[in-house]
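thread: overnight batch results

M.L. [08:02]
morning all. the overnight job finished for the chain we discussed friday. pasting input first so we're all looking at the same thing
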Amino acid sequence: MNNALNQLQPYPFEKLRALLASAQPPSDKKPIALSIGEPKHRSPEFVAAALSANLDQLAVYPTTLGIAALREAIASWCGRRFNLPAGWLDPARHVLPVNGTREALFAFTQAVVQRGVDGLVVSPNPFYQIYEGAALLAGAQPHYLPCLEAHGFNPDFDAVSSEVWQRCQILFLCSPGNPTGALIPLPTLKKLIALADEFDFVIAADECYSELYFDESNPPAGLLSACAELGRSDFKRCVVFHSLSKRSNLPGLRSGFVAGDADILKAFLLYRTYHGCAMPVQTQLASVAAWNDEAHVKANRDLYREKFDAVLAILEGVLDVQRPDGGFYLWAKTPGDDEAFTRDLFARQHVTVVPGSYLSREVQSNNPGAGRVRMALVAPLAECMEAAERIRDFVRQG
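M.L. [08:03]
and the structure it wrote out:
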């Protein structure tokens, strides 16, 4: 067996199950889960119709590169969303469909990391655990950058040493962040691109929450936006990851894409050809429909905005928690230990959250997620409000 498997840590939800195993929640309270970030809003009916209308494609082997119509729809969406000059993003060279960002982030790391050179895969901390596992199984060492409130829950990139940048092979970004919801400012993205040029590493920007934001007049910038402002038409060393899971409430469709540096994507396509992970044609055609429509995406944001307004109003003055820049999580500070808070909340109120320390790694005796919990506002509005009321009662009772 691959001995790197021994380095993998349990997933946060495995730890959570163990933490709650001995707790006995009250039987008179229905369970409310704010733990798993699985979208619960209704999937668009027109996407389901497109999928159903193309079930004859079950008889067709899909290609790894994907159909031209999907790559063209993705390139057009990127151009509109990130204000790219016409023709910059070539559907044939700069876009590759993938079966969701989780699979793609893992596979991308295997394709990019150069083994045997003591390389680093640098990521925010807290982080999406796939970054760590992908690094270890690719033969690289994870390196964690703390995301603290003092820096707006973004890494302090200025504090990173040149030695770390020198060893860096991939820099993972997540904006809006999971679990913090923090956005990486456009000037910071430009600075990171300059560092990538100086030290020759790849920026892998996980932007799967990019379409969940609050100000309709000001969509958050992404790595492609920074490339456009810099006149970087080749997207050198820059790759972005997007998905329909959160944007369109389609987590079961397993549909996303990577876009950016054509040379990197050419090598990644070769890897994926051997990997055997082509997207079914009927899924691709349904995805075309989703990427070509924005009305359902705005309606989705409206639902989340309503939930954040209601929940934050209930928790005001009770918990130290603020509206994030984006995403669908609250990153709340707990009155005491985050594990004890999570266990006792479940035992007394039948509400499940995730301890922040489970989403982070301790570095130099500091775990930046300790003393916080992540709450996913994915349940229906009434459930989110009831959960907030129970949390309010729990904290007030002490």
